[in-house]
Specification:
The complex is a heterodimer of chains A (319) and B (396). Chain A is α/β, with parallel strands linked by helices and 319 residues long. Chain A has one domain: 3-Layer(aba) Sandwich (Rossmann fold). Chain A is built from twelve helices and eight strands. The termini of chain A are close together. Chain B has 18 helices and eight strands. An eight-stranded mixed beta sheet of chain B has the order 3-4-2-5-1-6-7-8, sandwiched between helices. In chain B, helix 14 links the parallel strand 6 and strand 7. Classes of the chains: A alpha/beta (319), B alpha/beta (396).
Chain lengths: 319, 396
Amino acid sequence: MPSLFDKRLLIFSGKGGAGKTSVAAAAAVAAARRGKRVLVVEIGDEERLPSIFGSRKKAGYAGGPVLAMPGAPPIWSMCLTAREALREFAVRSVKFEVFYETIFENPVTRLFTAAAPGLDELTIMGKLEFLVRDSVAPARNGPFDLVILDAPSTGQGLALFKVPLMAMSMARMGPLHTKAERMWQLVADSARTAFNIVTLPEEMPVNEAIDLHRAATEMGLPPGKLIVNGVYPDFFPGDEAALSRARVRGAVPADLPGRLARAAVDAAASFVTRRQAHLALIAKLDAAVPLERITLPFLFTPRIGAGELATFADSLDGF
Amino acid sequence: MDSDVEIEALVRSRNVIVCVGSGGVGKTTMSAAIALKAAELGRTVCVLTIDPARRLANALGLESLGNVETVVDRARFEAAGLPAPAGQLWAMTLDPKRTWDDLVRRFAADEAQAQRILGNHYYQQISSAIAGSQEFMAMEKLYELHESGTYDLIVLDTPPARHALDFLDAPKKMMGFMDESLLNILLAPGRVGLSLFQASGAWMFAALQRLTGFEVLRDISEFVRSFSGMHAGFRDRAARVETLLRASGSTVLLVTSPNPPTVEEALTFRRKLVDYGLPWAGFIVNRVHGSALGEPGAAEAWAALRQDPARLLTGLDVPGTPDLAARVADNLERFEALAQRDAVQVDRLARACAGPGLRSTVPAFDEDVHDLSGLARINRHLFPERNQSHALSVHR
């Protein structure tokens, strides 16, 4: 099976809070370890990627290096906003900045473009397509091998990829149709693109992942991997039943050491219960989502940093 | 945790409670739990959810119906081992597309206008798919339910958002777009005499047309024109929603998890809510890990136990594998580290939000909450039984 990291565009989507941004960052680390020149792209006003990579400098719309690992190409990140993407597109298509000022900085146009439903998604998709076409090898002198997109969460994420289809059906010919078609051809091309789903081993995220996979398949997005994040590791192999029994047995001791011992056993039993719930939900996912699954461990650290990214990247390495 | 605002007082007295926060923090569950409490307190309450977990939806009787309020009947309380509430608990899942359609029918001058809009290509795309549509319709539904006068309290679970005010801004943006005066200037297909913006207007039209093709402009301009006369109604309604949200009967609760990045987002949310003049009442921190080593002397006692972990399992008759006791000890310490992290974050929230406010924490449970008894369990933490212990001491 060809590696995930030989694609040109890796999309990571899933429910909010499932850890898409961390997983996208870890995928960048795993790709860079293989010598890939990676650009990770996030969308929105609040830039989160550089700090996850441990960089104090923001990368902004222009993008910039955020992590240099020894012996690997530097990882870049970029933070897209629809407003800047529209400006870039307009300047590029009308060629002269002065026309841009006349047309797009006109108060009426500004109001219109700020409000037109779907336009934000369309310009972001346009920028993404341009990035892959212009900056990713085999593009001439393309500075990157791979673009990783930290996509918006489920509902909004699908809306983003639906917009080119919507534009194609509205404009049945002409430049908009051509452009939208090019966007769609990129995201739908299984040779270049993979649509990956990130989820947690909890009921709602699991159901949402199942729905997302179904919707993405219906749309024709090329299947990638299913990443289950935050799974409790197997700390008590063989002792599960004993711990669960110990929990229900006996009264709470009166002395402090006795109570602490009790709390420790309860915490272990509780861990076992939750791990079993995780496994049951993973089984449910496996039954419903026919994608290769990657499991990432729950991290008992206060915050995702370089060490945690490396741990995640280890888990992603073989894919 | 000390809280100078009683959530129970809010639930007893308010007409609207809006739960906001980042995705994945448990807004829907908290909204449903608050609504359950209100019903127990004798109020007629409706919880308006956006996307409930399937089993929670089932527990509330929402499995098939969208956009219609459903009462949670006595049998469901009985099945959950709960007494029937003094009030009534209603629930509804928002269906944005249907809410749009209803709104169009309500404001259309006649059936022909309604059909023109409902059949418009662009309308069909934006009413179902586009971000912002959901927020617009959540606000619309909130207002409609409030205006119906049926409920003492409406609890709104807002769509997951990266920006705190999406649920207010998205409607405004969309209204701005539907303002026909704007479109009249921008798109006047086939007309001459763009007097005011003539030069740039013509430029724009040419540029847009070159880019999009004629039919797109036609669809969009038809869409906006078909709303002719309805815009004032929409705008009026949006203004009323805002007035309702700022009114003293309304309150906004911020739900967050104790994860550091989520807490950062929560603080940004809170600042924006306050700047906007919304009646922010406090926060609920969900899935907080508790410490087992909190009491005086516990740390020292634990350190002593740690020297000889086998003592952890004495008397429990646990026939474990050889180093089980050591692993049980490691496990507790891992969760203690999480508990410490969570305590730091909860404290950080409290310090960042000066002045009176609700400060509630709900612990991390072993299982996901997906039924009425689970909601009741959350409520034992959200609404600690101060009144009851007080009542007991009075009776004694």
